[in-house]
Amino acid sequence: MSDYPRLRIAGIEPESFVDGPGIRLTVFTQGCHHNCPGCQNPQTHDFNGGHFIEIEEILEMIDENPLLDGVTFSGGDPMDQAAALLPLAREIKERGMNLVIFTGYTYEYLQQHWNENTDFLELLSFADMLVDGPFIMAKRSMDVKFRGSYNQRLIDVQQSLSAGHVVLHRIQLDEMAEHPDWNFG
Question: Which end of the chain is more exposed for a tag (fewer CB within 10 A), N or C?
Fold first, then answer.
């Protein structure tokens, strides 16, 4: 039996090319309060759905694939299981891998609630990129990288934590420079 908490997940994609840069193992957490209309993963919304998995099982999958560049937490909403994801995030960083987290919450919302939910800040302290904000069908786009709608941002988490405010990730900054006519709001 593990010392780690079990995660409730909807599933795992062992080799994803769309959930962040490079080849990634993506963990789809189960449970989401946002229920965004048009969500591509509506089966992940029910907090009682999915199944439990031991963190060690996920670590074995990571260790068995030398091609992985990093790991992505998607969902559902991983921030709703921030405490349970902390040991996994720590192990990912100890393996020298990058971590991307998707959330329907905005960075500003998480920042406003760090004092009452310290797990938000601690989980973000392991992240390299945060894809934040709800999916909005009216702003849906197949043109933006790693997200479903223009309002969602690619945030450089470590720079944002240092600066005390949102710093967009270089991937989004490059995208904005290449396509100044796109509406990123």
Answer: N
Q: Rounded to an integer, what distance in angstroms lies between the CA atom of residue 27 and that of residue 111? A: 23
Q: What is the pLDDT of residues 23-47, one digit of tens each?
A: 999 999 999 999 888 888 889 999 9
Query: Vertex 77, ends 72 and 80: CA angle to 5°?
Result: 115
DSSP annotation of 92: H
- Please, which residues have CB within 8 angstroms of residue 180's CB and are 6 or more apart in sequence? none
Task: Give the amino acid at 9.
Answer: I
What distance in Å separates the CA atoms of residue 14 and residue 26, rounded to the nearest whole number?
A: 6
pLDDT tens, position by position, 141-175: 888 999 999 899 999 999 999 999 999 999 999 98
Q: Residue 132 and residue 123: Cα distance in Å, rounded?
A: 14
Rounded Cα–Cα distance for residues 95 and 88 (Å): 11
Computed from CA positions of residues 154, 158, 161, 164, in that sequence, does the dihedral angle turn out positive or negative?
A: negative
Which secondary-structure segment (H or E) carries 155?
strand 153-156
